[in-house]
Specification:
The chain has three helices and no strands. With 59 residues, it is mainly alpha-helical. The chain is globular, with a radius of gyration of 11 Å. The N and C termini lie far apart (30 Å).
Length: 59
Amino acid sequence: MLRTHGSDPVNNCDPLAELLVRHDRIDELRAYTAGEDREEAVRRLAELLEARGDVAGTL
């Protein structure tokens, strides 16, 4: 449902990216960031990886 209504960030928050982060769905988040205009999702992925100590994964 989140994808059908568009993926435009609301209040600088990408709802699908936030959901994937909350449920620790890193592989799905990585795949989602591959799309166009996913800057917010990329930022959330980098924050998640950094918090886990995977700084190299953020590059």
